[in-house]
Amino acid sequence: MSLFDLMGDDGIVITREENLSVDAALDLTCSALLASGKIEQSYVNAIKATHKKIGPYYVLAPKIAMPHARPEDGVNEDALQLTVFKKGVDLGSLDNGDVYFSITLAANNSDSHVLTIMALSELFQNDADINNIIAAENKADIIDILKKY
Question: Which residues are catalytic?
């Protein structure tokens, strides 16, 4: 199963919005998952609450974020949402700067996402693919990349 299989066409969001607040950005990174019923609003709220408590724990590297919470916080189905912030978004990470590429992880239980994390790790280490996703102007270009993982 590829990363694309966990998100589908509807799980890819490309935005050119600027000056988003952290809460607005996190709402956007969960919007397709919420709309499809794969997560509940409580999952989004849990990500925001943890951010307020400990900061941007989900900003993994320069340009890259992976918002997530616990399965019991409102995951209905294993799923991913990819969000490209064309203008970047400041999520408060002093070490990693603005985020341009976000993958929201929704795992139904603590074990089910191990293979997904391995595939994401492989993607996150490929700077060329990350930069190509950020530069993509349409979902089709992103899908071609995701199907490799």
Answer: 68
The amino acid present at 141, given as its one-letter code, is D
Number of domains the chain contains = 1
Q: 8 pairs with which residues across the strands?
A: none
Q: 113: which residues sit within 8 A by CB, 6+ positions away?
A: 78, 105, 107
Whichever domain contains 51, its CATH number is 3.40.930.10
Cα atoms found within 13 Å of the Cα of residue 15, Cβ hemisphere only? 23
The parent domain of residue 11 ranges over 4-146
What residues contact 34, with CB distance under 8 A and at least 6 apart?
40, 41, 43, 44
pLDDT (tens digit per residue) in 104-130:
999 998 787 888 999 999 999 999 999
Name residues of the chain where pLDDT drops below 70: none
